[in-house]
TrEMBL record:
A Pfam short name: DUF5753
UniProt lineage: Bacteria, Bacillati, Actinomycetota, Actinomycetes, Kitasatosporales
Protein name, per record: XRE family transcriptional regulator
Domain HTH cro/C1-type residue range list: 18-72
Domain of life of the source: Bacteria
Amino acid sequence: MASNVNPTVRRRRLGQELRRLRELKGMTAEEVAERLLVSQSKISRLENGRRSISQRDVRDLCGVYEVEDQRIVDSLMQMAKDSRQQGWWHAFGDIPYSVYIGLETDAESLRVYEPQIITGLLQTRAYAEAIVQGGSPESSEQDNDKRVEVRLRRQSRITAEQDPLRLWVVLDEAALHRVVGSRQVMREQLEHVLELSQLPHVTVQVLPFEVGAHAGINGQYSILEFADAADSSVVYIEGVTSDLYLEKPHDVQKYTVMYEHLRAQSLNVEQSRRLVERLAKEYAR
């Protein structure tokens, strides 16, 4: 494993390999769980990379799968050891969406549909502070400050000089009209969107009100894609108490088709910029 691969991706790749070994053995997750006297949900979490994998877990699973090549076992054990290292975001304590941050950190491209607010990677500090405080009214000031700092740190992916994240954002027009913080905050935020949209790897389109019902009517979602062919694409849907990660090809394909419909229904890039620019000027009045 390359040394610069983050722990979330390490767990995910290790989980995929363990699933492959199980399927080669012709066993179900339930059968493996019975052999190891653990819950089926633990086997599922190990395979989908949502749970930290210990070297003991790997050793036990390789025993059940009768892996005879010690080099394979040693390689998987090393992957398990590496997967327990911490990413930069762990320095901020318990972040509820840390799995997503790990995936975003390693992604090659990200497609986002956001119906309510300006998406996190495009937010200014003032806008992010208002969003975090408004969305978490019962959280402490310290916790909210931590979430804002993590959000701003994530933005380094799109400002990096080498291998920046390829970002495509479809914003519902409602996100441009919802006054977050103040009109001054909104003016600065929309100007910031205009500035970032000039980057060659950032595309912003606006889905206008006049479209009516559309392919994203059920809410926000993101599609992450990775450079390594071994890493399958992931659809991420953020929740209040838990998040949803979809990796089955059928699910990813469905959301990808939905996104293409959203792009087609949206204003083109130049039309979107003109609308954002017009609204930014209105907020300045």
